[in-house]
From TrEMBL:
GO terms for biological process: 'de novo' IMP biosynthetic process. In the C-terminal section; belongs to the AIR carboxylase family. Class I subfamily. Keywords: ATP-binding, Decarboxylase, Isomerase, Lyase, Nucleotide-binding, Purine biosynthesis. It comes from the Eukaryota. Residues 22-95 form the ATP-grasp domain. One of its GO terms (molecular function) is ATP binding. PROSITE patterns: ATP_GRASP (PS50975). Pathway: Purine metabolism; IMP biosynthesis via de novo pathway; 5-amino-1-(5-phospho-D-ribosyl)imidazole-4-carboxylate from 5-amino-1-(5-phospho-D-ribosyl)imidazole (carboxylase route): step 1/1. This is phosphoribosylaminoimidazole carboxylase. Its EC number is 4.1.1.21. It catalyses: 5-amino-1-(5-phospho-D-ribosyl)imidazole-4-carboxylate + H(+) = 5-amino-1-(5-phospho-beta-D-ribosyl)imidazole + CO2. It comes from Pinguiococcus pyrenoidosus.
């Protein structure tokens, strides 16, 4: 059995109007929804595709509603957004063929049912707007009669970079925006105060940034800034290996199932956090030795880098959380875990970053060679006798 990502629907006049994939809900709610759906379908001992409808309460509970033993309207987005669409997997299942992959091949997608307006011309105006929108694919049902509220077509808008990118694409069409229900706009932040472009969506984080104490935040924020620059969604929190061992255990054990792909852990002194996390999760862990007042972070470095065989931790330089963020971006772009197009885009952005870094050094070298070391040092305010990394 395979389960497609949990999606979030908005109804209009008791008809499914929009479907957001993946659902923008807390990870534990998504996990519970998948668990309930899989349990319900498994109890039938049948074949085919099943649509399982549930409610998520404000308190975080998931309530089972009903099941449809057929391809479902809420699964139409899979045609463009998933490796194998629901219709093909339905046929594979009833024919006894191997099921296709159900993972999304795009960061986020929104399916909108085109409901009949007062006239066929008005109905087709929405379809025309969809055809002009980047990332949109229209499916016209070929119904001869237009009727108010009747399902006439649907279109799916895909966005490689997640929810923020999806909102940007939807915002290019006033006609489509006007047709979106307010709850859909609210979920995507359309019409809310604009966020900086680099602000990631934390609904489905790919990287977890953790630290042993809030005093480490000044160091670890550099990793967060890099991930924001590359538009990689992340979460950031405090997990102490010594003061909150149960929290450490729960965080590490649930990280993979919550969708994280990489964990960046910063710690100082005894610095057991990165190693303990690595021992408890199958995900790659990057350790950041935090500089301390006693041994300037050398104690942190030795504690993190001297891991026993079988418990790997990729360790960066003392205090260099920026490199941890860059390494996480490279892992995501070059080692899988993302849809191919999204991974390729991330690799391209990393190559641009490297090229810009090279150009910066070459400009400095040219200036140094041109004005001489004395004038160059003077322009730096006398220079620094401390080597920085």
């Amino acid at each position: 059995m395979r389960a497609y990502p949990v999606v979030q629907t908005v109804q209009k006049d008791n008809i499914c109007h929009t479907v957001l994939a993946p659902a923008k809900l807390p990870p534990r709610v998504l996990e519970e929804a998948q668990r309930i759906a899989i349990t319900a379908v498994a109890s039938l001992q049948s074949r085919g595709i099943f649509g399982v409808e549930m409610f998520a309460t404000a308190e975080g509970e998931v309530l089972y509603n009903e099941m449809a033993p057929r391809p479902h309207n809420s699964g139409h987005y899979t045609i463009e957004a998933c490796d194998t669409c629901q219709f093909e997997n339905h046929l594979r299942a009833i024919l006894g063929l191997p099921l296709g992959a159900v993972e999304m091949r795009t960061g986020a997608a929104l399916m909108l049912n085109v409901l009949g307006e007062d006239s066929m011309r008005e109905t087709k105006n929405i379809c025309q707007a969809a055809l002009e929108m980047p990332g949109a694919a229209l499916h016209w049902y070929g119904k001869a009669e237009n009727r108010k509220g009747r399902k006439m077509a649907h279109f799916t808008v895909s966005a490689q970079r997640g929810y923020a990118h999806l909102a940007e694409r939807l915002a290019t069409s006033p006609t489509v925006l006007q047709n979106l229900a307010e709850p859909t706009k609210a979920v995507l932040g359309i019409g809310a105060p604009a966020m900086p472009k680099s602000e990631p969506s934390h609904a489905s984080p790919l990287v977890g940034i953790i630290m042993g104490s809030d005093s480490d935040l000044g160091t670890m924020q550099a990793a967060a800034e890099v991930l924001k620059e590359f538009e990689i969604p992340f979460e950031i929190t405090i997990v102490s290996a010594h003061r909150t061992p149960r929290r450490l255990f729960d965080y590490s054990q649930s990280a993979a199932s919550r969708g994280l792909k990489v964990i960046i852990a910063g710690a100082g002194g005894a610095a057991h956090l990165p190693g303990m996390v690595s021992a408890l999760t199958p995900l790659p862990v990057i350790g950041v030795p935090v500089k301390t007042s006693t041994l300037s972070g050398v104690d942190s470095l030795y504690s993190i880098v001297q891991m026993p065989r079988g418990v790997p931790v990729a360790t960066v330089a003392i205090g260099n959380a920026k490199n941890a963020g860059l390494l996480a971006a490279r892992m995501l772009g070059g080692c899988g875990g993302l849809p191919p197009a999204q991974a390729a885009e991330l690799v391209a952005r990393m190559e641009t970053f490297q090229s810009e870094s090279e150009s910066e050094v070459l400009r400095k070298a040219e200036t140094l060679e041109g004005v001489g070391y004395e004038q160059y040092l003077a322009s730096m305010g006398g220079g620094s006798k401390v080597v920085g990394v």
